Records
---
Amino acid sequence: MASMVFSDCSTSATARLGPFQKRISGQAFQLRTLVSFPWRPTNRFLVHSTSSRFRSSSTIASAMSTDTAAKIIDGKSVAKQIRDEIAGDIVKLKNATGIVPGLAVILVGSRKDSQTYVRNKKKACEAVGIMSYEANLPEDSTEEEVIKSITGFNNDPSVHGILVQLPLPRHMNEENILNSVGIEKDVDGFHPLNIGRLSMQGRDPLFVPCTPKGCMELLHRYGVEIKGKRAVVIGRSNIVGMPAALLLQRENATVSIVHSYTKNPEEITRQADIVISAVGVANLVRGSWIKPGAVVIDVGINPVDDAESPKGYRLVGDVCYEEACKVASAITPVPGGVGPMTIAMLLSNTLSSAKRIHNFQ
Ligand SMILES: NC(=O)C1=CN([C@@H]2O[C@H](COP(=O)(O)OP(=O)(O)OC[C@H]3O[C@@H](n4cnc5c(N)ncnc54)[C@H](OP(=O)(O)O)[C@@H]3O)[C@@H](O)[C@H]2O)C=CC1
Ligand SMILES: Nc1nc(=O)c2c([nH]1)NC[C@@H]1CN(c3ccc(C(=O)N[C@@H](CCC(=O)O)C(=O)O)cc3)C=[N+]21
């Protein structure tokens, strides 16, 4: 259900606030006077400014210390570029080996949002030349039936990646189901062996979870320095927050994790050069939470009522965009930020899997 919309971000949806958190209301946010983050846009992407989409990089650099508008990290266009690269690689793989990468998606139940996500993944696969396979199981399926479907895809040589759409119906044990995905086809990177390797020094997972991988890819492609920087990840879920924190740490950031029991999340977040927010609460992160010049990656996808939209709602992130724009040096929009990157990383993981299984460099 969509929550109330507050166009000025003056109130966030409080339903999921943790026990120690107070709502922050009407607090004035700091205006940026000095940008401390060394913003270095690469030439690979045009960096759009919220105030002028067509400035040159040098203008952007000189504007950093005085301007009040963050640069938009354009996930939609980066994702398109990655999809184009993947499509080219798939043609090469097919011409050299005859192999076509295949992704199987298992959807249990009939949640509208999950059906939409699965449909979008299927379309994205078709567009780059990945074969997509789908198993739709009824809501009242047993755990054994889901595992049987996964086992079928584990044993199917035309399938190189398996994704079990989450959330699963409540009566199912998510752990048992995700454990049954073959580690070499675990393109979501949710298998405990993959997560375990991600968390260990000197080990590498076969796959990195798509959303955090997409966040890192955005930081890399926009030339954001990570080593030695302070990063705060808000949220610690298995699928986003926790692996995002591990990835930042692997690249030598100093990482803090803010969760629903964190006291004074605002103060902790304000220390960060890089903020990744993955909570699911609209407008939780106010401008006052952001250190001037920080880079903000907003993973949250939250529907809010909007009578002017044909659907009656629109999507916003966890971060109060209008406020954060005035403080951050760069920020991802919602939609058009991390979301498209998640899908691009899923395609990328599926292609890597096909290459690895068939020993293609
Ligand atoms: N753009 C994309 O591609 C994707 C977007 N999403 C979106 O990202 C958001 C998070 O998803 P997901 O990780 O699956 O969500 P979960 O509900 O699994 O996790 C939410 C996390 O946020 C923490 N949290 C909840 N309330 C607060 C609060 N008030 N202050 C600080 N931390 C809080 C929780 O803490 P605790 O652990 O203490 O409960 C938990 O760790 C959602 O909006 C989801 O739709 C998700 C996947 C992909
Ligand atoms: N096994 C599994 N793997 C997942 O990766 C997974 C999942 N289950 N369950 C649900 C979440 C959510 N998720 C999103 C993917 C793309 C967008 C996306 O493309 N969003 C668009 C907007 C889409 C719209 O307009 O509806 C955007 O942000 O621009 C959003 C969210 C993946 N998830």
---
Amino acid sequence: MTQHHDTLRAVTWQDNKLQLIDQRKLPHHHEILSLETAQATAQAIHDMVVRGAPAIGITAAYGVVLAAREAYRQSPTDWMALIGKDIEALANSRPTAVNLFWALRQMQALFPQINGDPEPVLLAAAQQIQQADIAANYFMGELGASYLPQGKSVLTHCNTGSLATGGYGTALGVIRNGYATGKIKHVYADETRPWLQGARLTAWELVQDQIPVTLLVEGAAAALMRQGQVAWVIVGADRITANGDVANKIGTYSLAVLARYHGIKFMVVAPSSTVDMQLATGQQIVIEERLKEEVLRLNGQTIAATGALAWNPVFDVTPAELIDVIITEKGAIENPTTEKMQAVFNASL
Ligand SMILES: CSC[C@@H](O)[C@@H](O)C(=O)COP(=O)(O)O
């Protein structure tokens, strides 16, 4: 086993409240938001205070705890009926990361067994979801790193680290493990327009871990690959469909196309809570579109020509045929197909 020193947690439960690091302010301001209602939790997910598919799911699970507390206060006998509105608000906070809906289902499945105050039972369940996510990340870190050659560089996109998960990270977990074991010598990170998760969050996490990181604009990825610097592209996922198609941060699909052209391997790292066996292919995934202002403005300042329109899909779908391996805590799926996905997930979902 590799030694783990990672302690950063984006989502914590303290003093009977949900505490979120405000990721919109990182890395230069470290502010914690304390939330006491499910409605505020849904708003925080929508507003990107917390982001990253597993972290969104975990936050929603704690949101259900807050919802149940409020509903039970209103009516100890009728809380299960009263909680519906809050669960709907949580479900409507963001559409693409399936971990959100998975976590809500996990929590709701417990309701029928609860007698009396639901809070202790639901809090334990939310904490268990977070602990299981961290354990999955450590496992995937080792499994993913076992695919890497010795002493090479990798390219990653968006932020998939402690901030995006229960802790440690998916793609960044593989990178952490790969660096600790000497397989990775250098990390290239896309800045990830327009929210700059790469520049603000991934670079911050890697610098803290003393892992050498070089930022590039997404448009530079092809030129970097052409130089022969990158052995693997390693990314996370927001939803993986039954055929192995992967929705992830906008720009991921470009990287997969580029990687194939340049003979570079492409790895997706995600826990089974990101797998949606109900959808046959990635074409059925709802892709979130956010406000055009996120593209037209930067740091509150208009940068684009006044009058220009903007298109702001925040995820894209990478077809399974461009993916060399999907790493999950249930195992690795090489050259994913529906049959291979079913063999791993249908038995257990
Ligand atoms: C382990 S995080 C995996 C994905 O959620 C991540 O790559 C991503 O696309 C995050 O998007 P975001 O819009 O920041 O929530």
